Structure formats: C-alpha cells, structure tokens
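=== RUN LOG ===
request id: a7f3
mode: sequence -> structure
chains: 1
length: 152
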Amino acid sequence: MFRGASAINLDTKGRVAIPKRYRETLHIEYNSQLVITVDIQSACLLLYPLDEWRKIEAKLLLLSDTLPAERAMKRMLLGYAHECELDGNGRLLLPLPLRQYAHLGKHAMLVGQLNKFELWDETAWQQQIDQSRETIQNEEFAENVRLADFSL
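=== RESULT ===
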C-alpha cells in the first residue's frame, strides 16, 4: 500500500524519480510496470501499478459505449493511459500530454493513495489540501452513512 506525500522534481526531459521508499515494492511486487492516466475530477495524474490498473480496465470494460457519461469516462481514462516502466534509476518519463493535463511544473507532489499514486503540481496540491480541509470541516459526518462510524 502506498501512503504519504513526497515532494519530487521533474527534470528537463519530463522525468520524475519515484522516491526510494516505493521503488523496491514497485520492482518486486509489480515488476516496475506502471500505467499513468488522468484523474477525471482533478488536475492531477494517477499512477497505477500494472496489476492494479488491470482491475480498473475490467471495470471500464463493463461500461457502455453508447451512454455519453460512460463513454466519456472510458475515453478520458483509456485515451490518456500510458504504460511505462521505472528505469534503472527509479525514474518515469511522463508524456507531454499528461504533463500538460496536470499543469505539471518543475516541482510536484507524489501522493500515495493505497493502491495508486496521485501526481500533482506542487501549487495545485497545496490548493487541493486547503479545499479538502474545508470540505472536511463542513461535513456532517453523522449524516454520511459511510463516514458516520469512521474514527481515528
């Protein structure tokens, strides 16, 4: 499982180095194979180990090609999907269309989300954290069935 937020940099070729704490797991458990795609609700990228991505593809296969919302979701997630492999230095090359979608500059944040990572522009990540804090503060947890019994 991937957790935590790491500040990383994009080099001039559009590569990011995955933090060392994740590399061994990605190499041993996932053979360094990843799929990168866009987040359909936020200006960030999603990085899935290939085995986890296959679960997403199985769900996408069940969606309709004739219902506009389902087709749009498939088009976005699959159209931007890019298979890649960590190089010997633990780096990934991010294709230009993906970097443009997420407005990635030199400074980025790689955020573990259990079965995947999110990759954010550093400034956008800070704005997202501020929005998330506000959303949580305004949430009536007792009224949300999925959160009512959640405790830390």
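=== NOTES ===
The two ends are 18 Å apart (CA to CA).
The chain has a mean pLDDT of 94.
=== END ===
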